[in-house]
Design goal:
single chain; mainly alpha; globular
């Protein structure tokens, strides 16, 4: 019997090596990248530029070790930040500023200051323009009381527009330096004081001096109103149109309210009523808080007044305004007599047709502001307005006696002289602000030629009509000439702006 020893344990070197097994993934791999937080401070404005990164050899990575990635196939700015969606940007802002900013719901209340400022601006335009026409409906009564002829009564308008033209540029300078609110309050004091003193003493010299005082306040007030409208941001284009429509409304109210109050109150009390809108506007502007633009001193803009006068862009806007707004005031003064003498219609109907352009301007000027805010093409509106002005006035100047044709001419003329209003003054404000010339100075220079055109052309048309006996010659020789100047200026505006941008690249303006 052979002896067998017990089995000896195998050596460890002889045992098969244990292999390490990686844990198997039981679920599907989420190929969608993890949501990463992006700081809102990374969204700095930078000019997009293509960044070329040299390709590097990728290390050998097992398929199971590769993390899900998202290819980036777009250009980056200088911060090399991947653009995020609007939801990610909003979430980043909410997380970052959650401690500093209170939560606002979806239907949070919007700021009401622009709306209140628009109401205050339109009330100023109504108060100023009400004094332009409140005496016109009682001219025969004033002639008998003052023992003055038609030429002397015409000085009421002449001195008013003369004072208006004298304070247009200073009003813009004061608006740039001290703010539109302070300029508005000071000019409303002059307008209200002149309106109160005008009917107190029935003497011709006294009354024309009061009209000049009203004009001095009106020029600064209207420019300050345009300056305040330009500070409304996205509401500025619509605000300029609404401001112009309010001026047309004030003119209509002055024509029709004074005769209604003449019987119950008398002519002096009926004219003193013009103080009420001025006092109301003054109280509202005293209550309005000081805008942030008015708190900052802008005295450096006054040193650029000379550069503003030498700017071809400003003068193209000024001549365009003369060919539309200034010509509209000139022709409107003669439309009632035009329909009365040429078409032999009753006085009431002639006055209604003569005031048709003023009524249509209440709607056409805000319409121009709405279209400008939507399309942002001021050159188109200026060119279209000047061309329609020329066509409408041409229909009125035709030797053909046709009442329907004359009414069509009045409508086209009214639409042409009111459509570019918002485009002219909004463009002047933007140009003056971006070129550091001063938005108030630019608006004042753009409006400075409209009053002299009304002062010179209105009596000149009457003189030609009296000598020739025909409105066709008067409108054709004076009116169409001013309209043609407006067309030329409107078509030269874009080349003048391009030349400015080419010569001064540091202050290039894009409208």
């Amino acid at each position: 019997m052979q002896f067998k020893p017990p089995p000896v344990a195998q050596r460890r070197s002889q045992q098969p090596a244990k292999q390490f097994k990686l844990p198997q993934l039981t679920g599907p791999v989420d190929e969608k990248p993890a949501r990463q937080f992006r700081s809102p401070h990374a969204f700095a404005s930078a000019a997009p530029q293509h960044v070329v990164v040299p390709e590097q050899p990728q290390p050998a990575i097992m398929q199971r070790e590769a993390a899900p990635t998202r290819p980036l196939e777009i250009s980056y700015g200088q911060h090399l930040v991947e653009p995020a969606s609007q939801q990610e940007h909003a979430e980043a802002l909410r997380i970052t500023h959650s401690r500093d900013m209170p939560y606002q719901g979806k239907h949070a209340a919007q700021p009401v200051r622009p709306i209140l400022q628009l109401i205050a601006i339109t009330l100023v335009s109504i108060a100023v323009s009400f004094n332009f026409s409140n005496y016109s409906s009682i001219i025969p009564l004033l002639q008998s009381i003052l023992r003055a002829n038609k030429g002397e009564i015409g000085l009421f308008s002449t001195l008013l527009f003369l004072g208006l033209s004298l304070t247009t540029i200073p009003g813009g300078v004061l608006s740039d330096r001290y703010g539109s609110r302070a300029t508005m309050l000071g000019s409303l004091v002059l307008v209200t004081l002149g309106a109160f003193l005008f009917p107190l003493y029935p003497h011709f010299i006294w009354m024309i001096l009061c009209r000049a005082l009203i004009g001095l306040g009106s020029g600064a007030a209207l420019v300050a109103a345009s300056h305040a409208t330009a500070e409304l941001g996205k509401y500025s284009a619509f605000g300029q149109g609404l401001n112009g429509g309010a001026a047309q409304l004030g003119t209509c109210l002055g024509i029709f309210i004074t005769p209604l109050l003449l019987g119950p109150l008398g002519w002096q009390q009926a004219l003193v009523i013009a103080v009420i809108p001025g006092v109301l506007s003054f109280m509202i502007w005293c209550w309005m808080p000081v805008p942030s633009q008015d708190k900052a001193r802008a005295g450096a803009q006054m040193h650029n007044l000379r550069a503003s006068i030498q700017s071809p862009v400003i003068w193209s806007l000024a001549f365009t305004n003369m060919g539309t707004f200034g010509l509209g005031n000139t022709i409107t003064a003669w439309l009632t007599l035009y329909f009365l003498s040429r078409h032999n219609i009753p006085l009431g109907l002639a006055a209604a047709l003569g005031s048709l352009g003023v009524f249509l301007g209440i709607f056409f000027r805000p319409l121009g502001g709405i279209l400008l805010a939507r399309w942002q093409h001021p050159t188109l509106f200026m060119r279209t307005g000047t061309v329609l002005t020329f066509i409408g006035l041409g229909l009125l100047a035709l030797p053909i006696v046709s009442l329907p044709l004359a009414i069509i001419g009045v409508i086209l003329f009214s639409f042409g002289v009111t459509l570019p209003y918002a485009a002219i003054f909004s463009t002047a404000a933007i140009f003056g602000k971006k070129t550091h010339l001063g938005s108030g100075v630019a608006q004042g220079l753009s409006a400075v030629l409209s009053a002299p055109a009304a002062i010179v052309c209105t009596p000149l048309i009457g003189l030609i009509e009296e000598q020739s006996g025909s409105f066709s010659i008067a409108f054709g020789s004076v009116g169409l000439l001013i309209a043609a100047i407006g067309i030329i200026a409107a078509f030269l505006f874009a080349p003048a702006l391009d030349k400015h941008n080419t010569s001064t690249r540091l202050r290039a303006v894009t409208l």
